[in-house]
Each structure stands twice: as structure tokens, then as C-alpha cells.
């Protein structure tokens, strides 16, 4: 896997510096738990792992958004939307609980 210092995968992995130890442990598990007889098989597996880690795995250190969201500037929008949903849900629950007490 040839990762230049300019590739998005390299940049996104660096964006979550506080979870670097976790990334290292997770990647070690990918490498150690299976035998790879061909270098390209290992490259494929690592490439899939980096894609998952950067684009699909929520990181607690990044307020439970993905590194890709932070890198692309979507973090604030996502957190605002989550807050709106949370407020709406809490208001609905409060209303439902008050209605059940009255009847």
C-alpha cells in the first residue's frame, strides 16, 4: 500500500491523533489475527481497515463523528442536527409522560 503524505487516508488517520494508540492496536489485530500469504492481500485488508476507520467508525475523541466528517468540515452540522433530534425527542417524551400521568 503506497500511502503518500498527501493522500486523504494518511491525513484522516493523522486527524485523530488522540486515538493513535487505538488505531495502532486495531491495525495490529488486523495484521496478527490472520495469515497473509501474498502482500497484496495484506494491502487490501489494510486498505479496507483504513476506509472503515476513517469513514465509518465513530470516534469518541471527535465527539462521535468520523475523521472524514471532521476533515471535510461536516462535524458542526452533524452535531447540530443530533442536538436538534435530541431536544425534539426529549420534548416528545416529556409530553407523553405528562399525558400518561393525567389520564
Shape: elongated
Beta content comes to: under 5%
**What class do helices, strands and sheet pairing give?**
mainly alpha
Q: Radius of gyration from the CA trace?
A: 20 Å
Query: Termini separation (Å)?
Result: 65 Å
Count of DSSP strands: 0
- Outline the low-pLDDT stretches: 1-13
- How much helicity do the residues have? 55-70%
Give the number of domains: 2
Q: What is the average per-residue confidence, as pLDDT, rounded to a whole number?
A: 80
Return the string of H and E elements: HHHHH
Number of helices: 5
Q: Tell me the major beta sheet.
A: none
Q: How does this model look, in words?
A:
The structure is a single chain. α2 packs antiparallel against α3 (39-55). The protein has 5 helices and no strands. Helix content is 69%, strand content 0%. With 103 residues, it is mainly alpha-helical. The protein folds into 2 domains: 1-72, no CATH class; 74-103. The chain starts with 7 loop residues before the first helix and ends with a helix. The protein has helices spanning 8-15, 20-32, 39-55, 67-71, 75-102. The longest helix is centred in the last third of the chain and has 28 residues, at 75-102. The protein is elongated and about 65 Å long.
Q: What key phrases describe this protein's structure?
A:
103 residues; mainly alpha; 2 domains; 0% strand
In short, what is this structure?
The chain is mainly α and 103 residues long. The chain is 69% helix and 0% strand.
Question: What's the arrangement of secondary structure elements?
Answer:
Blueprint: H1 8-15, H2 20-32, H3 39-55, H4 67-71, H5 75-102
Helix pairs in contact: 2-3
